[in-house]
Amino acid sequence: MVPASLPITTGLRLLSYCNQTYNCGIALRPLLSLPSNYYSAAKPNRQQKNSNIPSLSLSISSFIPKEKSQVASKSIKTFCTSSNVTADPSPPATTSSDENVVDMTKIKDMANTLDIRVGKILKAWRHEEADSLYVEEIDVGEPEPRIICSGLVKYIPLDDLQDKHVVVLANLKPRNMRGVKSSGMLMAASDASHENVELLEPPVGALPGDRIWFGTEDEKETLPEAASPNQIAKKKIWEQVQPHLATTDSCVATLGGTHSMTTAAGVVVSKSLVKANIA
């Protein structure tokens, strides 16, 4: 219902329900427009009680057809009786898109706690208990070679692994792979269908044990220490970094398409796969 009495305001124009159009399909227009001299005449009697001012008792139901009155009663929920209320509703609050933006600086910092090194395969053979696995003995610049298992049988001939320079992720927790303790992972690029897989290749001149990082050559001196295998597992660093690893149109391995995998001798590449995932 409309308020029973009007506030004393010159030229007041009573609007019913903010002049909005509701589900009933009827635009509710101004119900009453009072002349400006109305209040001029009433001015001497302002100190009288409000009961002396003519009252209005109007129902909007009289302006709505009976068959639509039920719909209107359900649709109309908000009363607007103030003369300074505008008919335009406030826009709904929106969520800033910045909340969904990945903080690549944080991802890069995490990525550079991965102990990624240049390695050289000294020997490779088929796993005796797993048809899909190779076992490699790899020099990563430590006193003893590492033993690493990789599921490359389907993709790379065994002969292509012998004496090959590779990229090794060295600070993962060791895993038992069908009776063989694997201490690391060979990093490779693969297409979307995962039908073509290529091992990442360090640049010519890179030596076993050379550290690989994400960024420019100038950033080498400011790299953080590599995280421990326990930290990598607990903080899920690899799981957060890996989705952002890919090759570019020129086959360069990168983080986020901008930070190259770099060694002191140059950048890491895939032999032929462009825009490929890296894992």
TrEMBL record:
<feature type="domain" description="TRNA-binding">
    <location>
        <begin position="110"/>
        <end position="213"/>
    </location>
</feature>
<dbReference type="Pfam" id="PF01588">
    <property type="entry name" value="tRNA_bind"/>
</dbReference>
<dbReference type="InterPro" id="IPR051270">
    <property type="entry name" value="Tyrosine-tRNA_ligase_regulator"/>
</dbReference>
<keyword id="KW-0694">RNA-binding</keyword>
<dbReference type="GO" id="GO:0000049">
    <property type="term" value="F:tRNA binding"/>
</dbReference>
<dbReference type="InterPro" id="IPR002547">
    <property type="entry name" value="tRNA-bd_dom"/>
</dbReference>
<dbReference type="InterPro" id="IPR012340">
    <property type="entry name" value="NA-bd_OB-fold"/>
</dbReference>
<protein>
    <submittedName>
        <fullName>Putative nucleic acid-binding, OB-fold-like protein</fullName>
    </submittedName>
</protein>
<keyword id="KW-0820">tRNA-binding</keyword>
